[in-house]
């Protein structure tokens, strides 16, 4: 007992100034705390702080801003996906609605078509739904056949390899290569600018319809460029032809002026030379105003040379003296 009391006094005594390396405990531990558990708790907290300082914490929330999600590989050999009745209706009536609403954007045209589709009766929708069902059956048959091929097995291996690489890298993987990443500021399951929920069959069909329309627009743009090139060539040829016609027109105008001047000079000469030759029966003399009718009447006299032989010889004599140049 005495031995225990001495040990207690030594524990309660203040530390000595002799530089001893032993650590003295100044106060006893509470009775409800186990020293072993306390040391373990302190060590655990230190280890936790060390781990938190050594390894950066992962960002909570959405995808890091400015960073693109990786996409899974696309199987280029897979059969063509079937189109739903809704998408078939969109493809069939999109150009019609676009023509009726030339100023509408792509999303506005799609909304109009979606509204029209919802107003269709079951009988009117049946045609599109039956075509979609046939297309789906075709797809399932082709897919079943394709899954038996070696190309499908190779693709699945590549897909699994990519998935493991992505999961080992940053833990993100998209099996579809056609879905664009969404900004974390968007509401859940809703695409910006559209009222169509994402990751749904309707959204994917909408995407396919948009891609098909873009391909059609690119094709139309190429055709229009070719037509513009042809029309530009035609315009150049037309301009060249117009220039030639303008030159010919100018030449003809000059010729007409020269002929008109020559005709006026000839009329004046005829008036001068036939000034003393009155017409038989009327005694009419030529003048600048009636020279044309005067010459027509003289010509009618020449049609009966036997009856007007003397008159004709005199006319010939006068005509031989006229200067035509």
TrEMBL record:
<dbReference type="InterPro" id="IPR036910">
    <property type="entry name" value="HMG_box_dom_sf"/>
</dbReference>
<dbReference type="Pfam" id="PF00505">
    <property type="entry name" value="HMG_box"/>
</dbReference>
<dbReference type="GO" id="GO:0010468">
    <property type="term" value="P:regulation of gene expression"/>
</dbReference>
<feature type="coiled-coil region">
    <location>
        <begin position="207"/>
        <end position="276"/>
    </location>
</feature>
<protein>
    <submittedName>
        <fullName>High mobility group protein 20A</fullName>
    </submittedName>
</protein>
<dbReference type="InterPro" id="IPR009071">
    <property type="entry name" value="HMG_box_dom"/>
</dbReference>
<keyword id="KW-0238">DNA-binding</keyword>
<feature type="compositionally biased region" description="Polar residues">
    <location>
        <begin position="33"/>
        <end position="51"/>
    </location>
</feature>
<dbReference type="GO" id="GO:0005634">
    <property type="term" value="C:nucleus"/>
</dbReference>
<dbReference type="GO" id="GO:0003677">
    <property type="term" value="F:DNA binding"/>
</dbReference>
<feature type="compositionally biased region" description="Basic residues">
    <location>
        <begin position="58"/>
        <end position="72"/>
    </location>
</feature>
<feature type="compositionally biased region" description="Polar residues">
    <location>
        <begin position="15"/>
        <end position="26"/>
    </location>
</feature>
<feature type="region of interest" description="Disordered">
    <location>
        <begin position="1"/>
        <end position="83"/>
    </location>
</feature>
<dbReference type="InterPro" id="IPR051965">
    <property type="entry name" value="ChromReg_NeuronalGeneExpr"/>
</dbReference>
<feature type="domain" description="HMG box">
    <location>
        <begin position="79"/>
        <end position="147"/>
    </location>
</feature>
<keyword id="KW-0539">Nucleus</keyword>
<feature type="DNA-binding region" description="HMG box">
    <location>
        <begin position="79"/>
        <end position="147"/>
    </location>
</feature>
<feature type="coiled-coil region">
    <location>
        <begin position="122"/>
        <end position="149"/>
    </location>
</feature>
<keyword id="KW-0175">Coiled coil</keyword>
């Amino acid at each position: 007992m005495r031995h225990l009391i001495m040990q207690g006094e030594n524990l309660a005594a203040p530390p000595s100034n002799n530089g001893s390396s032993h650590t003295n405990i100044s106060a006893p531990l509470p009775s409800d705390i186990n020293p072993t558990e306390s040391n373990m708790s302190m060590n655990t907290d230190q280890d936790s702080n060390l781990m938190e300082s050594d390894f950066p914490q992962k960002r909570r929330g959405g995808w890091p801003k400015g960073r693109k999600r990786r996409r899974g590989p696309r199987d280029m050999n897979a059969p063509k996906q079937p189109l739903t009745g809704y998408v078939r209706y969109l493809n069939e009536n999109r150009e019609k609605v676009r023509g009726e609403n030339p100023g509408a954007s792509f999303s506005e045209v799609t909304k109009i078509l979606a509204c029209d589709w919802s107003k269709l009766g079951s009988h009117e929708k049946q045609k599109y739904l039956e075509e979609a069902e046939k297309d789906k059956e075709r797809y399932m048959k082709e897919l079943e056949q394709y899954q038996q091929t070696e190309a499908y097995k190779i693709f699945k291996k590549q897909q699994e390899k990519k998935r493991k690489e992505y999961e080992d890298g940053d833990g993100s993987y998209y099996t579809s290569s056609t879905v664009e990443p969404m900004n974390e500021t968007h509401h859940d399951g809703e695409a910006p600018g559209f009222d169509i929920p994402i990751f749904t069959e309707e959204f994917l069909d909408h995407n396919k319809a948009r891609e098909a329309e873009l391909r059609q627009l690119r094709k139309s743009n190429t055709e229009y460029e070719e037509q513009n090139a042809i029309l530009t060539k035609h315009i150049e040829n037309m301009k060249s032809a117009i220039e030639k016609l303008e030159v010919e027109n100018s030449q003809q105008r000059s010729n007409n002026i020269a002929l008109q001047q020559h005709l006026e000079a000839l009329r004046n000469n005829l008036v001068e030379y036939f000034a003393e030759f009155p017409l038989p029966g009327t005694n009419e003399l030529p003048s600048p105003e009636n020279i044309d009718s005067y010459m027509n009447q003289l010509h009618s006299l020449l049609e009966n040379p036997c009856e007007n032989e003397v008159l004709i010889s005199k006319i010939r004599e006068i005509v031989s003296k006229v200067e035509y140049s």
